[in-house]
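Changelog-adjacent note: as of this version, every example in the card shows the full chain rather than a window. The one below runs 213 residues end to end.
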Amino acid sequence: MFRIGRVSLSGHAAALAVGGIFFAAATVSAQRAAPAAEPPAVRAAAAAGITPPPGYVIGAEDVLGVLFWREKDMSVDVAVRPDGKITLPLINDVDASGLTPEQLRQKVTAAADQFIEDPSVTIIVKAINSRKVFITGQVGKSGSYPLTAPTSVVQLIAMAGGVQEYADISHIMVMRNEGGRQIARRFNYKDFQKGKNLAQNIELQPGDTVVVP
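Full-length structure tokens:
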């Protein structure tokens, strides 16, 4: 005979009762230990962002969504200031420039831990304005262009409306800063059009300037 509380049970019934108690306890423990599933709002917000290019790090003028699960008042869309910082409720200024989105997520999570319990943070890249290339000279539209995907010299020229009638397309230059010094790479558009020296159509890097004389 087994006694549970004030109820006496025989062998088989007692075994079933004890087994049920352990099963219920294990179920409650598992429910407490299991992490909460990501809510639909988080997934929808993440889907509203853009996919950064490989090697992307945050820079000035980029627009980020900082989403706190269960903390609506903490969630904001912010633009990275020229000094590389973003401002968040309660946390105030956080250095963001030069970090990957994951590095920023970890940094914000650590800072928020002082104010809320078990913060769950998602960083969403909404606009990349820091990665730019420039084109000037005899093209349809000079200026800066966002570098949100791999872009070659020819592709940038096309984005700028193509070369103008009197452009010297044999002496186009790509100006690039490498190791603190300015270097120039020649791009002969005439040769490229003839299928020659195709390797000169290099992939542009942030900050490059294409000069079409």
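Structural remarks: The longest strand covers residues 121-127.
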